[in-house]
Every structure is written in structure tokens, then in C-alpha cells.
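=== RUN LOG ===
request id: a7f3
mode: sequence -> structure
chains: 1
length: 378
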Amino acid sequence: MTRNASPLLPEGLRDRLPPEAEAASRVTRALLDALKGHGYERVAPPLAEFRETLDDGAADAGKGRDLLRFTDPVSQRTLAIRPDITTQVGRIATSRMAHAARPLRLSYAGQVVKLKAGQLRPEREMLQIGAELIGTDSVAAAREIVRVALSALVSAGVTGISIDFTLPDLVETLAESALPLVHEDVARIRDELDAKDAGALSAAGGDAYLPLIAAAGPFAQAIERLRDIDGGAALTSRIDALEAIAGDLGDDVQLTLDPTERHGFEYQSWFGFSLFVEGYRGTIGRGGSYLVTHQDGRQEPAIGFSLYPDPLIDEGLGQDDSDKRRLFLPLPLGHHAGLAADYRAQGWVTIAALSDSDDAHALGCTHQLGPNGPELLG
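=== RESULT ===
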């Protein structure tokens, strides 16, 4: 061990100390158990892969700019630390599990590292937990994936959840025939809608798209405004799909709709959603439909979600009061394995003395074992 190593960490990286590290483990286990209960089997891809592998697949091509890269001394090829696990799950689904029965349900959990931090989150390393449904992006699949995401969060003890729906490819779809645009104008109209800039949208020749700005807000009102827009069969089918997805989520979840939201949905196809938690400003998760590409070039539909629970863990999610019942076992009791095991079976955390100088208070114990059992420390 290097004695004079600096205790400082690179910007955006951090240590998790007790009790947050244990809470993170508990939250991860609760989320994964919930996903397993819905039939999503866990995969565990590596932390680093060849750069070109992480550039391709399910995720946004722009993520290639978010790769922390280094040279592999063995292969002399460029490797990258994953900034997102979705791409890796897509690789697994289209290679090693290409012949598995569809729809294929996979889950995952692990750390990801970004090249740069975002505006709302200074962390470059974060915990990502999610599920992917490979082989379909139907309305039924979308309904399942939203319900599974909600169920997982509730199982982990999260409350005050809201869901914001979006239709990532809406502008491209409407531009084909219902609200025609020349190809060169589509990206600009899409960007102005995303920015909710009515003036710039009108100046760009997108007057027909102005009603889409108003079709954002609480779900029930927004969906009616969206239905009033003459967007042809393509828009009607998406409205029907959104109503089917939202229909059985219950009154405990707040639902909103922003049909032209694009930030974070650059690689999604017809459907997307963001997850928010009361008291936290940013998104806690995001999901939607997309395509994964097989090695022969064939594309396959998929739908999934990713959760980023670190901010909730920082606020106390996953902490357990039972951890606070810490029983100090003084010498010679500290070396009586059977006695210690009996107390742990009763829910105690046992701290065995290793010397006569060990201090129960300093070690964070709440009780000390006396001749008649645990005694509360004063």
C-alpha cells in the first residue's frame, strides 16, 4: 500500500461511507428482486469494453462522446468504461442470447462512469439499475415496462412518484404526410418544439406544429389537446396507445404528458417516459422504445427503462433502523461464537471486543452484553 497516496478523488467520483453504502446495497437488492418477480433475469456485463462496441447498439450515438477511454495493454486496442448499461444489454441480446426465446426479459445493476458531469448532477459515477424487454415494442410491452418500473420503485420504498410521457419520433411521423415538412426542416422544427419556443417555431415555418406546445401538462388535459390536433391516423394511434398505457396506473401516481420532449430520448422511437420523485428536482429514471442491431444488420424492437437511485439514497432511502441495534460483546464473550450467533439471529448487530481497550461508545454500540443480557449504554 502507498503510504503517502493522496486521499483526493477525481472530480465527480466519490466514496460511499456507512450507512449509505449499506443503504445502496439494500436499494439495489430491493429493485432487482422486484424485477426478478416480473420475470426479468439478471445479466452482468463488464465495466469496460472495446470502444467501438459501446459506440454502437441500443444507445444514442452521441454517447460515444461520453466515453472515458484508455488503451488495453494486452490487446493494444482502445477500451472504454461504460457510461450506460443499456448498450451492453443490447449487445448480449443480439449476440450471446440472439437465439433465446422472445420476448426476452433482462435486468441489470452496476456502476456507470460519464466523461463529464451533467448540469443537474455533478456526479460522473452513478448507480444504474434497469430492465429491458427485447423483441417487441408493442403497446402491451410499453404497459408492462411502465408498470414494472413503478412497481420496482414502490418495492424499494419510493413514494411521491410521477411519470411524464413523450412521443420521441412524433415530429418525424407527422412530417411525412399529416403535417408535411421538407427533410431539411424537420430537425429545426423538432428542436424548437423541444425548447417550447413558439416564436422561433413560427419563424421556422412550423405554424402547423404550434398546437403541440399547448399539448403539454397534466395527462388528462394534455391528451385531449393532443386529440384536437389534426394529425391523421398516426397521431390517433399514438394517443390511443398513451391512454392504454396510462389507463391502469392508479391514482397514486401523477401523470403528465409532453409529446415533443426530446432531451434524453435521442435514440428512442415511438414512446418514452421519465420518472420523477417528489422533493427531487431531476429525473430519477427514464425509459422507452428503441431498436437493437444484430451483427447481420437486422434490427429488433425493444423497450426498457433505467433507474438512477443515488440521489434518493443520499436522502436516506434504504437505511434500516435495525442497523442501529449494535451490541458490544466484551472479552471473553466476544470470542464466544455461538453466543454471538444467537444474538445476530435475534436481529442484533454484534461488535466483538478484540482487546480490553475497545470502547463500546466509540465503536457506535447502543448496548453492551452484561451477565443478564443486553444492557443499554448510557
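=== NOTES ===
The first strand starts at residue 41 and ends at 42.
The first helix runs from residue 20 to 37.
=== END ===
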